[in-house]
Design brief:
By secondary structure, the protein is an alpha/beta fold. The chain has helices at about 25-40, 55-65, 75-90, 100-105, 105-110, 125-135, 230-240, 255-270, 290-295, 310-315, 325-335, 355-365, 385-390, 415-430, 430-445, 450-469, and strands spanning about 1-5, 10, 15, 40-45, 65-70, 95-100, 120, 145-150, 155, 195-200, 200-205, 225, 245-250, 275-280, 300-305, 340-345, 370-375, 375-380, 400. The chain has a 7-stranded mixed sheet, with helices on both faces. A 6-stranded parallel sheet has the order 10-13-14-15-16-17. Helix 8 (about 255-270) links the parallel strand 13 and strand 14 (about 275-280). Helix 14 (about 415-430) crosses helix 16.
Length: about 475
């Protein structure tokens, strides 16, 4: 069989709408592609995030395809549009959808996307092979684990989803399927990394932050699982032959420090020459010896979720970190000359105007290179969302909702929260000492990519400022 796998995305005038911090290859589809190819099937991928796909091209590829898989996070309208186009060309071709929205709201997903035939819950690597058996007439849909499906005018469920206990048993992602694309582009359309791919070395998260969406609140027995250090390094060795940079996209790559030490020891022993971007790190995992190994191994950038400059708010979020830990870790990261990327959340339901202003001042006081400020959102499957549903502040079929006063989810209106975010960006990025420091650090690194990206950043923020006046 031949499968066409699609990642839909919003594009404006030929450019993708990129989420923070940059584009990645669709690892979920690449894993499913690898499993299908390993079992003798053909696979093609269309990534609308980095390609403005014309309908004629889609139609041509569909002509030789036996089934279509579409993954999306929360914007089901994108999947609706593509599936409607596909069925317009070939009404009988099976369409399978998956991703976070499908996992949390499987029945609603099929209701919202009437052209889809099967909805996958959670991990798809084993499920897709069961679906192949059904398509070949060898299995009933009711016997497939982790799906909802359309049966005439009814939506039914298969057997309960199963998690993959041993991630080492999975083949490495089929990256050759997206070699035609280039990734690593920032939301401001500058390339942050050269010839980049992505790696995920674990699934799930061992921590319990209140704002974080958790599959474990939807799938029984879901838990944090990590690949072995040997398996991770074997994959890095393989991609080192073709790529210069890799983004490690785990929720918390350094959660198991013993494993992290082993991974970087093995990278150093293997003489791997790559640039690493760690996209998920906690400040309480900082360790001087580990950071020294990371620096020597080629780690250039680390993204920390700092969230707030107030201990009360950090405690409310159940971050289990302290302000002092934040200060010490950021200081150590700067000492290692890492590019320090951070994120902050504005609008906790206990947060006051003074605390928001304190978070902005705190961000400005730290030696960080890039700060992202966002409004708190109640995400489906997060403890905050679950609490709000129990109190009937939001309905169970809502995927995400801003923590706004109008919905009794926070202390500020939506407009006030947005204005605070704009103020935070302006306060952080328009400091003369920050601008001078970034110019200096760019030339010190002999790398002006970040500087060019930063100039674009300042241009966009400047426009925000004008629009808010």
């Amino acid at each position: 069989m031949k499968f066409l796998l699609i990642r839909p995305a919003t594009r404006y005038q030929g450019k993708p709408k990129i989420s923070f911090p940059m584009t990645h290859p669709p690892l979920g589809l690449l894993y499913i592609g690898a499993v299908l190819e390993k079992n003798g099937h053909k696979v093609e991928i269309l990534d609308y995030l980095v390609e403005d796909v014309e309908n004629e091209k889609l139609k041509k590829i569909l002509k030789s395809s036996d089934a279509v898989g579409i993954t999306f996070i929360d914007n089901y309208q994108l999947a609706f549009d593509i599936s409607r186009t596909i069925k317009g060309f070939y009404p009988r071709i099976p369409i399978i959808i998956g991703g976070p929205y499908c996992t949390f709201l499987p029945k609603q997903s099929l209701e919202n996307i009437p052209d889809a035939d099967i909805c996958v819950i959670g991990e798809g690597e084993k499920v897709i092979l069961e679906i192949v058996e059904f398509l070949n007439g060898k299995k009933k849909r009711s016997d497939i684990h982790g799906i909802y499906y359309r049966d005439k005018n009814l939506i039914k469920s298969g057997k309960p989803p199963q998690i993959i206990e041993d991630l080492d048993t999975l083949p490495f992602p089929a990256r050759h399927l997206v070699e035609k694309y280039e990734y690593g582009i920032s939301p401001w359309y500058y390339r942050i990394m050269k010839n980049v791919t992505a790696v995920i070395s674990s699934r799930g998260c061992p921590f319990q932050c209140r704002f974080c969406s958790k599959y474990g609140n939807s799938i029984n027995n879901w838990k944090f699982r990590a690949r072995s250090a040997e398996n991770v390094v074997d994959e890095i060795k393989e991609i080192n032959k073709k790529y210069n940079s890799v983004a490690i996209v785990d929720d918390n790559f350094l959660a198991d420090k013993k494993r992290a030490h082993k991974i970087f020891d093995m990278i150093l022993e293997s003489n791997i020459d790559m640039e690493f971007f760690i996209e998920g790190a906690r400040v309480d995992t900082a360790d001087r010896n580990l950071y020294l190994k990371m620096k020597k191994a080629g780690v250039k950038t680390i993204l920390y979720g700092l969230e707030s400059g107030n201990q009360e708010v950090l405690d409310f979020y159940n971050k289990n970190i302290t302000i002092n830990q934040i200060k010490q870790t950021i200081k150590l990261a700067r000492e290692m000359n890492f590019f320090v990327y951070t994120s902050f959340i504005i609008g906790a339901p206990i947060e006051t105007k003074e605390q928001i202003e304190n978070t902005i001042k705190f961000a400005c006081s730290l030696p960080i290179d890039l700060a992202n400020f966002g409004v708190l959102t109640y995400l489906i499957g997060s403890p905050l969302w679950i609490e709000a549903v129990k109190k009937k502040k939001i309905t169970p079929n809502i995927y995400a909702v801003i923590a706004e006063k109008e919905k009794n989810l926070g202390n500020f209106t939506k407009d006030e929260l947005i204005n605070y975010v704009i103020y935070a960006y302006k306060s952080f990025y328009f400091r003369p000492n920050y601008i001078v420091a970034q110019v200096y650090r760019s030339f010190l690194r002999s790398d002006i990519r970040i500087l060019l990206n930063g100039l674009k950043y300042l241009t966009i923020i400047s426009k925000w400022g004008k629009n808010s006046n």
